[in-house]
Design brief:
- There is one protein chain.
- By secondary structure, the chain is an alpha/beta fold.
- The N and C termini lie far apart (91 Å).
- The chain has 43 helices and 23 strands.
- The mean pLDDT is 91.
- The chain is globular and about 100 Å long.
Length: 1022
């Protein structure tokens, strides 16, 4: 008998099994298994299973565990694909199950899809307890003309089922053969506890819960050959039947050819003709006349697109980009290599003119390297879903789907999840969380940490935690929707990939990105970009307030105010340019044209950033730009002799060595892979080509060395240009419409307290007034009022959008002169303490000219007044006769007032409490912001609030700390060395006010203060 395993539930089945393929395949090979079958509850992981087993010389069998509806029964059956037809039907069955709420398969659907499949009725499973009769079996096998239905009997651990005799009798009566079953959900007997933990994680209970369901899979391990033979020793024919079933199943999973979808065109019209017509219309709208250079490039690109079979793809992308723009959904100017296509520019897919910027089509589509085209599109992230839904509705929900992605149990996640089901105490969880290093695997971390090993040995439960976490680490925990990927096909997707219910009525593939691409399906990325939403908000606010319609493509690229933003490193809120290192690069290079902006964008990455000083010196005339050979100058002059872009590498290969652009792209890719043999072969190819063009071999070799050196550094110029357009547009508005920029930017930061505080400090430094939220005038998001920014009500913690809608509707009823008017308009149901207290604390009712303490004290009176007036027809008379009064509320000191603002808004609005401390200080105290211009070693003093404290021990075991101190202008890191720490440690508390003195130092290229003295301060009430 050949050893085979007919029912393996792998770890891909979201903790229904914990079998890992990299452990399974070697074990099967070691045992001499001939075949093994995967039977997950969905077709998760089948392609990986098939490839891994084939790699180890074991024949994979593709199966599915299915809950089958038979009259009033729901029973477990295993369904196997015998051939390609069966596999196709298995995908349809899995899709049918996974797109129904019940997640089971009606019998008539089984009958419709059973061709090419084998069915094993798992009659020893508990689901058959009330269904072990001839009638049910006959219904399952009713249309079975090729003996493809079997009765399955399992003997887990060698024990026979109590109803085995009656099942054998049923086999004789139905004339359905019996096949031996053994379901495997973990590899070894000792893995059962880890499997039990996995089940508890999946179902959400704790192992010590007396009400937890029994686990019936204690023997669901992978038995040895001898065990299987012994278990079925009295019926070896059952094993032979199973072997025959497995041998009959032959499905080869391999990488498929491209499956390009079709764009609907009018009868008699060729897609390429429509594409060319659309391109010419687009270019006509952009240019009055088409030069010969554009004409030639257009014809060339269209011929390559047609030749490679991608015409429909371009028409499809153009279609949904046009839809987005028509619906006012902001689309990015382009991204990646697709920005190098004139066709994409002509169709409005990108806003980058590839000829103007010297971009190469072959970097995007290379006729000598046929791969699926990849035009990724950015949309404003708050409206991306609308475009996905459009594609699904336009082409049919059976033809379009989003791509699944799986969240795995990472080192810390698995530790926490296992700890939860083992009912660890909060102290235990804190300890193990602090000790775990997410940079290593769980097992490696335990090996490296003696503290953890000692802690584990104290209690057996902790040892189970260790064992279970090691077994479960990296297993898929849950499924979700990929952030961008969408697939589209000419035929229903279920023919190529199994589907399941997704979101927004768009199906989800059961296979992740890599598997979907191997099927040959066209993957399109619909990316949501927050910075486009920011631009869209700015545009909408300007249009609403000023009645100006903004066309982003018409923004001038020579605006000097915009370049001052870049030169000064004033790039808070500017896409890609916010980091401290990028700001330093901008200040070093001093960009004064768009070329410099996208050059900095490409340079500021590990590797090429070492050339930033050289670029700056050459750009600013401090050092001459030299070229080894004159022919380099036309290609490298725009970057001052430095190779920054992949397109430059390609142009060098064309100009120096006579390569075609397609060959140059292959060279670029080959060099980046660092294969020494390929490098030498390409060197000879390059030198031979250069020699034919009359270049000296030594110089040609030097150019090749230059290319090799920069191949890793090379960045796609097309991407740098396209994405820098977003950055430039944001900087343009920051320079020219700062109130609109900051209002929109603040709105995008709601919930990000630290970032909001940073932006508010920047606004105050620029003299931009910030008006408090107001129930009379604020909208939900922040808005512009004159030259000031009015905070939105949505920034107040506890104010929901639904409440804002009620309040906005109430405002329409008339003006409010008091909180009582507001209560009447809102109505007693909506005027509640829960809704009103945060508004008062944030200052949103200050327009009523009452102290906040009085307003808080008067909420009950206002609510009662609203109840009294109600919706009565005589309410006007009631209001005339009723003159409610505010309730005296005592006094509220300044610190309490500021504390309420901080609690509800996340920052201090009226003033920073440190400002009060500075006013009462005996001498002038400089701002923290001013310390950043001081030299190393300079003595300095500041006053601030302690935001965070990190206490550590040195190698000698001495205690010290790192603090973050904030005032109204900036934050600074402070280091307290052991000697000072011993003196002041008792004063170190978060949110404490302190005066700190010390000396300026630099750490990680950032300014810090070495603390010498620290004194606690207190705010006086007023």
């Amino acid at each position: 008998m050949n050893l085979m395993y007919p029912q393996i539930v792998t770890g891909a089945d979201l903790l229904r099994g914990i079998v890992k393929l990299d452990e399974l395949a070697p074990l099967l090979q070691k045992r001499g298994a001939s075949s093994a079958a995967i039977v997950n509850s969905k077709l998760y992981g089948v392609r990986s299973f098939s490839k891994m087993l084939a790699k180890y010389g074991i024949r994979p069998v593709i199966g599915l565990s299915v809950t089958l509806e038979v009259e009033d029964h729901e029973v477990l059956v295993y369904i196997y694909a015998q051939n390609e037809t069966g596999f196709s039907n298995l995908m349809k069955m899995s899709s049918a199950i996974s797109t129904r709420e019940e997640e089971n398969l009606p019998l008539n659907w089984l009958q419709a899809y059973r061709e090419g499949c084998i069915i094993i009725c798992a009659m020893t499973d508990s689901s058959w307890a009330n269904a072990r009769d001839l009638h049910v079996l006959q219904l399952v096998a009713e249309k079975d003309s090729n003996a493809s239905t079997f009765i399955g009997i399992g003997r887990p651990g060698g024990g026979a089922h109590t109803d085995e005799a009656s099942i054998i009798q049923l086999s004789e009566e139905s004339q359905l053969p019996i096949a031996a079953c053994q379901e495997t959900r973990f590899l070894h007997k000792e893995d059962f506890q880890a499997y039990e933990v996995a089940t508890a994680i999946r179902k959400g209970y704790k192992l010590n819960d007396s009400q937890k369901p029994p686990n019936r899979y204690r023997q669901a391990y992978l038995p040895e050959r001898e065990e299987l033979v012994n278990w079925f020793g009295d019926h070896p024919e059952w094993l032979r039947t199973t072997e025959g079933i497995m041998d009959s199943c032959v499905v080869t999973i391999q990488k498929e050819d491209f499956l390009m979808p079709k764009f609907p065109v009018a009868d008699g019209q060729a897609p390429i003709s429509l594409l060319e017509q659309n391109c010419r219309n687009g270019l006509q709208a952009r240019f009055q006349s088409l030069s010969e250079e554009y004409e030639q490039r257009l014809r060339y690109e269209l011929s390559i697109i047609d030749q490679m079979g991608f015409t429909d793809y371009f028409l499809i992308v153009e279609d949904y980009v046009r839809y987005a723009k028509t619906e006012g959904i902001l689309v990015g100017p382009g991204r990646g290599s697709s920005a190098g296509s004139l066709v994409a520019f002509a169709l409005g897919i990108t806003e980058v003119d590839p000829i103007k910027y010297g971009l190469l089509f072959e970097r995007f589509l290379n006729p000598e390297r046929v791969t699926m085209p990849d035009i990724d599109i950015d949309f404003a992230d708050n409206r991306r879903t609308e475009v996905v839904n459009y594609v699904a509705s336009t082409y049919g929900k059976q033809y379009a789907a989003q791509i699944i992605t799986f969240g795995t149990l990472s080192t810390k996640a698995v530790a926490r999840n296992v700890a939860r089901v083992l009912d660890f105490t909060p102290e235990e969880v804190r300890f193990m969380s602090n000790e775990l290093n997410s940079g290593r695997s769980f097992k490696e971390t335990i090996i490296q940490s003696k503290k953890l090993r000692d802690w584990i040995q104290v209690e057996p439960r902790r040892e189970l935690w260790r064992q279970a976490a090691e077994r479960l680490e990296d297993l898929p925990r849950n499924a979700s929707t990929h952030a961008a990927g969408v697939v589209l096909a000419a035929n229903p997707l279920v023919h190529y990939v199994p589907l399941q219910i997704g979101s927004d009525e768009v199906f989800l593939t059961q296979w992740a990105m890599k598997d979907v691409e191997e099927v040959g399906l066209l993957k399109m990325d619909f990316l949501g970009l927050r910075n486009l939403t920011l631009l869209d908000r700015i545009r909408a606010m300007i249009q609403y307030n000023k009645k100006q319609i903004i066309d982003f493509e018409c923004i001038p690229l020579d605006d000097q105010a915009t370049y001052r933003v870049f030169k000064n490193g004033d790039t808070t809120g500017i896409f890609q340019f916010e980091s401290p290192g990028m700001r330093r690069a901008l200040k070093t290079i001093q960009p004064d044209n768009f070329k410099d902006v996208y050059s900095v964008n490409a340079l500021y990455r590990p590797g090429p950033m070492e050339f930033i000083p050289l670029y700056s010196r050459r750009k600013n005339g401090q050092e001459p730009t030299v070229y080894d050979i004159p022919e380099l100058e036309p290609i490298l002059s725009e970057t001052y002799g430095i190779i920054i872009y992949q397109e430059q590498i390609m142009k060098l290969a064309v100009e120096i060595a006579g390569f075609t652009m397609a060959e140059a792209d292959l060279l670029r890719r080959a060099i980046s892979k660092k294969n020494q043999q390929v490098l030498e072969e390409e060197r000879q190819h390059f030198i031979a080509g250069a020699s034919k063009k009359g270049f000296d071999q030594i110089k040609a070799n030097n150019v090749y060395n230059l290319i090799v050196k920069f191949a890793d550094y090379g960045f796609p110029k097309s991407h740098a240009v396209a994405y820098s357009m977003i950055s430039y547009r944001l900087a343009f508005f920051k320079a020219n419409e700062p109130t609109y920029f900051y209002a929109a930017f603040l709105s995008s930061l709601t919930g990000s307290k630290d970032k909001m505080m940073e932006v508010i400090r920047e606004m105050k430094a620029k003299g931009i007034p910030i008006l408090p939220p107001s129930v009379k005038t604020s909208r939900y998001s922040h808005t512009v009022e004159g030259h000031a920014i009015r905070l939105g009500l949505g920034a107040i913690k506890g104010v929901t959008f639904a409440f804002y809608q009620q309040l906005a509707a109430a405002r329409e009823k008339g003006s409010w002169s008091s909180m009582f008017d507001m209560a009447i308009s809102l109505g007693a149901d909506h005027f509640s303490e829960k809704a009103i207290i945060p508004l008062i604390k944030a200052g949103a009712l200050d327009d009523f000219n009452q102290k906040r303490s009085v307003l808080l004290a008067s909420i009950d009176a206002a609510h009662s007044h609203a109840l009294f007036i109600g919706d009565d027809a005589l309410s006007d008379q009631f209001q005339f006769n009723s003159q409610p009064k505010y309730t005296p509320g005592g006094t509220m000191d300044q610190m309490t007032k500021l504390g309420f603002e901080h609690d509800t808004l996340g920052f201090y609005l009226s003033e920073h409490p440190v400002e009060q401390l500075k006013r009462t200080a005996s001498s002038h105290i400089p701002s923290i912001a001013s310390l950043f211009s001081l030299n190393r070693g300079t003595k300095a003093t500041c006053i601030g609030i302690i935001l965070s404290i990190k206490r550590i021990r040195t190698k000698k075991g001495e205690a010290m700390a790192f603090l973050t101190i904030q005032d109204e202008t900036e934050e600074i890191s402070c280091t307290v060395f052991p000697k000072q720490y011993a003196q002041i440690s008792v004063q170190l508390k978060e949110e404490a006010f302190v005066q700190v003195s010390g000396s300026i130092d630099f750490r990680n290229q950032s300014v810090q203060l070495i603390v010498e003295q620290l004194a606690s301060l207190s705010l006086s009430g007023d």
